[in-house]
Amino acid sequence: MPSGLDQAGDQALANLSALPHFASFGEHRQRLTALTLAAAAAHPAPTLCVLGAGNCFDLDLGELASRYEAVHLVDIDARALESAFARQEPATRDRLVLHAPVDLSGLLDRIDRWSRLQVTPEELMGHAQASAGQLRERLGGPFDVVLSACMLSQMQLSVLRVLSEQHRLFEAVRWTLNLTHFRTLAALTAASGRALFATDVSSGQLHALDALASDVDYEALVQELTNAGKVFDFADPRRLAALFSDDPVLRRAFQPFGVSDAWLWKNGPETTFLVYASELRRV
User: Fold this and answer.
1) Rounded to 5 degrees, what are φ and ψ at 116?
2) How far is CA 153 from CA 26, 67, 197, 201, in A?
3) Which tens digits make up the pLDDT trace of 62-74?
4) pTM here?
5) I need a labelling partner for 205 at 20 to 30 A (CA). Which of 62, 179, 230, 231 fits?
């Protein structure tokens, strides 16, 4: 059975395997960069924090550095961030701040113990707020804009690999991970700022995404596939809306959760994801 610490190595291998596919990310990169630039409009000298930056194929760092005073890149994979940094022009590098290795789940050093049921209800229930506070302290901030760049799925996959769906704590840990991630967004986002959450929600294995018409309404498609049960459970927008409504910290921090944009992400020549974004405005 894979261990929690194995997952950091697996993510580094995944980043390496994606290096030949920069061009295929083009549409995805353009859409996510545009959303992140638009979020800066209300701030004269904004700061940005990107969670799950990895190879930085999701974003045009040059464009972001021309608008943001500082761009903080956070990831578990230090090599990926250093390589992305080295590819940039000097003027862009001057605006970049690297944070790695950073475990944004707070789970990798404890999930093996949890898998053996060596966890108290108090530890499980307190994990989200404790991890969010630790990340706020380590990364600094708060930031005017915080972007979760399609990385919740990677963390959830790590939980699945270590625990499996049959484990007694799987559902509880999966819920805890989602709560941890969104409370981290709340902890890192300035009171006058906003967070952007982007996630892959479905794939070509669940629906024939590559056969869609060119004029498809992707936001409507997210709703359609959600109703049909053809989405990843952890990213189901209805479940996330319920989480935001039920959790007192998220309810105080952000307006209600909703899908604000959607598009296709060609992740290499053989893999296509449906992605949606949610703009999380502070209350």
Assistant:
1) -90, 10
2) 20, 28, 12, 8
3) 999 999 999 999 9
4) 0.94
5) 179
